[in-house]
Every structure is written in structure tokens, then in C-alpha cells.
């Protein structure tokens, strides 16, 4: 699994010009799922995300996690994170999991993350054509890849 983790002051997802989900201060998580991803990848990412200290304390030092600041979370599926760009100029998405594999992992990721941080995790709609808007606070953007965890 690949994740683009962004600290935001606000973020939203719209589908067909209709607001689907929105959050205030917290994390926007773009999630790309590989066909070989498993529950172990979810476990590692959820623990890492829940404890990632990217929110500022009273001294302006990034010492707080999303748990500490009671931030909100918005998860958006994004198969293009698994793009291969080795050949030519058209990305290949062969490394992106098909919906039959990806949807259960996406749902499990959201459920486990919500349990870890004890808040409702908002999301887009898997496979939908979504418009994602956000104000990246910092900017703070972190890339996590569960295949590179060792």
C-alpha cells in the first residue's frame, strides 16, 4: 500500500458537483492498493499514521499526532499511486489492485484507522470520479509505502 499523507486545515471530496465528505484540521490520506497487499500492510500503516508526529505543539515543534490534536481524517482511494512510469509517457496501472481485492482492503483500512484514532474516518467513494480539494497546512506531505517498511 502506498499512502500520501497530508496535514490539512481543511479538505473535501465532491462527486458530480455534490459534496460527499469534508473535514477541518487533520489528515487527508490518499491510498493506493497493490494486488499483493494484506492485513499486515494495513496494520503497519494504521499504526504509523496514528502516531506520526506532524502537528505542532505550543513551541511550533512537530510533536503531536492526529490523536493528540483530535484531528479529523479523510481517506480517498487513489489507484494512480500504484502507477508505473518506467516506459514511455503513459503510466501503467498494472500494479494497482483490481476492485475485487482493493475494496475489502480499503474498507478494512478505514475501519481499522477509525478504531485506532477513535474518531469517525470520512472518505470518498471507491472508484468514483472525485474532485478532492484541500488546504495543505505547512505544507506537510509524507509518503508511506508498506512495501518499504523493512
Report on this structure.
By secondary structure, the chain is α/β, with parallel strands linked by helices. The protein has one domain (2-148): D-tyrosyl-tRNA(Tyr) deacylase (D-tyrosyl-trna(Tyr) Deacylase, Chain: A, 3-Layer(bba) Sandwich), CATH 3.50.80.10. 21% of the residues lie in helices and 38% in strands. It has helices spanning 39-51, 99-117, and strands at 2-15, 18-23, 26-32, 55-56, 62-64, 72-77, 121-123, 130-145. Strands 1, 2, 3, 6, 7 and 8 form a 6-stranded mixed beta sheet that branches. Helix 1 (39-51) packs parallel to helix 2. The longest helix is centred in the last third of the chain and has 19 residues, at 99-117. The protein is globular and about 45 Å long. It starts with a strand and ends in a 5-residue tail after the last strand. The mean pLDDT is 95.
Chain-wise SSE layout:
Elements: E1 2-15, E2 18-23, E3 26-32, H1 39-51, E4 55-56, E5 62-64, E6 72-77, H2 99-117, E7 121-123, E8 130-145
Parallel strand pairs: 3-6, 6-7
Antiparallel strand pairs: 1-2, 1-3, 1-8, 4-5
Helix pairs in contact: 1-2
Distance from N terminus to C terminus (CA atoms, Å) equals: 14 Å
Query: Spans with pLDDT under 50 lasting ≥5 residues?
Result: none
Structural class: alpha/beta
The tally of beta strands, per DSSP, is 8
Cα Rg: 15 Å
What is the third-level CATH name, the topology? D-tyrosyl-trna(Tyr) Deacylase, Chain: A
CATH architecture grouping: 3-Layer(bba) Sandwich
- Main sheet characteristics: 6 strands, mixed
Which oligomerization state do the chains in this entry correspond to?
single chain
Broad CATH class: Alpha Beta
Domain count: the total is 1
Beta-strand portion reads 35-45%
Instruction: Say which CATH homologous superfamily is assigned.
Output: D-tyrosyl-tRNA(Tyr) deacylase
SSE topology string: EEEHEEEHEE
Give the helix level as a range of percent. Answer: 10-25%
- Average pLDDT score: 95
The helix count comes to 2
Overall geometric form: globular
